[in-house]
Structure formats: C-alpha cells, structure tokens
Automatic annotation (TrEMBL):
<protein>
    <submittedName>
        <fullName>Uncharacterized protein</fullName>
    </submittedName>
</protein>
<keyword id="KW-0614">Plasmid</keyword>
Amino acid sequence: MTRMTDFITYRETVEFTVRLPRDDYEAEHSYGEERQDVKVVSREEIGRRHEVDYSWDCDLEAELFYLLKDGERIFESRSHDAVVDHCGSLGDDVSQVFRFGDLDDQDKFWRIQAESKAAKQEQS
C-alpha cells in the first residue's frame, strides 16, 4: 500500500502560565517567555487536503516505463520521455528530469539496454 501525502489544518486554543520577570535586570536578560503548565483546551480541524504523489518506474521485462499516481498505474509507454511529458501535463514539475530523447524512437532506450547487457556478457 502506498502512503499518500495528506495535510490537515487545525485551530487550537492553548492555555499556559508565564512567569513574569521580578525586576528590570531579569527582564533585560530573559530570552523570551517560559511557558509553564501548557495544556490544549480545544482542537478543531479546519481544513484537509490531499497532495497527489506522482512517481515513475520501468518494467525491464516488459520494456515499459510507467507513471504512478498515488501508487496506481495511470500511464505507460515504451518511451521514457513520453512518461515524463505525461507527468508534466498533469502539473508535476519535470523541468529537472533527464530526457533520453526517445519520443521519436521508442526502442532507443531498450536497444541501449540490450547492447549494454550483451557487452557485459561478452566480458564475462
């Protein structure tokens, strides 16, 4: 199960005691108020929102990249860049994401993977 990003806004009423300075010297050299006997009197939920979590991954056996929204697969393609572009079209910031340049040639990444795998096997 994927954990989703949720936010809740609360309004709280807090009751506490503050010791006042005894003299001017103590007032000058204090570092703010020291709260004592702090207790929450009331707490009310005033807002709730969900922030969508996007992520992508690839299935090496199926040779597919896929996009997840809150853990559910919503888009897949053989092209890495197509998945990145789709994620960007949904409002996620993808400006810093590396592009493979495989929009026109969706087999580009998978060919490189196969060649790399073959080269490693030859070295063994």
